[in-house]
User: Fold this.
Amino acid sequence: MNKILKSREYLIYCRGKLHGDNLRPQILEFGDMTFLDCIKDRSVLAISGFNMATTPEYLIKSLYEKYTSTGHPKSLFIETDALPASSGRALDEVLKDAYQKGNEEFIRGMLIPFMGFSPWLQKMTVENSFQVYGWPIGITAYWFREIGSGRPGLLTKIGLGTYLDPEIDSGALNARAEEAKECTISKFSISNDEYLLYRSPKPEIAFVRTTFADRYGNLTMDDEPIRGTVMAIAQATRARPEPGVVVAQVKKYLGDVSVPPRNVEIPYPLVDFVVPSPEKYNWQASSFYYDPRASFKSNPWDSREFPGDSPEKNIVQSQAVIARRVAMELVSVINRKGPPILINLGVGIPSLISGIISREELSRNIVSVVESGPWGGLALTGPDFGVSLGAFAVSTIPDMFSNYEGGIIDVASLGFLQVDRFGNVNPSYIPGKLTGPGGFPVIAEGTPRAYFAGSFTAGKSDISFDREGIHINKEGEKVKFVKDVYKIFFSGKESIKYAKEVKFFTERCVFSLDSKGLTLVEIAKGVDIDRDILNMMEFKPELARDIRETPITVYGEEKMGLKYMIKKGQT
Assistant:
């Protein structure tokens, strides 16, 4: 169907085969791997993907299969907006095979924001198999947009005072990255304000995933649960001075059908190859292939069960208590500010708040957004995180992060791994284990109110609740409130500088942050402050004069009646 390309120059000149009076992308048939001829050794490859949403799994696997059969292309540098993988799928599957068979020459480095659902990427990062740089999701998404605009990189305040600040660290996640420095962060002063400039190699090849391609090669996202960063990745790749090659994996080529202009996510002049893939490589999320609620085609509360880790099932009681307590705090924000409030919910415990909001009938008053782009709806958890059922709007990832970096949202609730005496937060990195920053640094730094939610200690514990309060039968063995965090992802000093409201919610107590550091402001009924709190911390917090007791309603499973706690005139 297609001529084999003799040179990169021919592709750049032609941009696909002639179709009537129009130049369109080359529409490949199943098994046609012509697009792989464009990828040479040491190429810089951009790949879309938020876990399995918009992940071009077929393209990733086809590229690796060519390498294993020919030894080329090798020494690739991969850049992505989030994580094009889940455990055992897509990039994670490739890395498992590469590690076990000694094919580590396939990749020389990665710029990747999150690796929590890719155990083999975590393993190879820790073992220093190739360079790994850990910029946040919002930074990489914006960076693609800036490169597509012909700028040298991304200039922002995000990252000051954290591991991304060159006066503190470098953003590199292992020794190879520290040494190679293919991705750099520089510090500048502009009008007496400090900024960081993020720079990385411009992509030469792009792999993106959409749903359909019409007769001209226009790409739509009809069945995708998110819009992701596919347009910005395509633009960054095609930008001058050296335009690259854009390859799109689609579920189906529509033949002679033309799609309405408003449905087009990527116009055909930005695309070089369209590759229809087998059905098994177009999953909406990690736990399910297709659910119409995920692509906003049916009501999320219909009769079928929730896929994956639903908010109704398998929730540890102590985690539910924390999520319920944060949900109660959101009502106080409504009473201070007025409805609706716009919130972001991170992975882990914070993602449970979405289901609570729905059950408490507060979805109109509290609108949740997810960094992958959905507005409202029911945010899924675990490896399906990023997908929301029944959202009422869907932004691109760069547009969503404008809401975070610009402080447009009202509250962010995020998880934590370590908190120190200065209010610095480490959500994900300890020696030998790291998941990457995800969207955490941008969201936490941009929001005017940061409500961190997590268990007080780590490790296996046995904690129960009833109307009498908390019962700590077995304590977690790992301290999370430490003297100094291992790496700073959120700067307490910077948050105080900009007068942010910062609180830390656990199953047994609540802390607030001010210039003195952490202050204990609330405890659960049944807690002994010395035994259960102070003795389980590496530093001593301030104690509020009037330490409150957590309302016992958060310990149950029934509705808390939060909508009736909203002051009259605020609904």
About this structure: The first strand starts at residue 18 and ends at 19. The chain has two domains: 8-279, 317-565. The two ends are 61 Å apart (CA to CA).
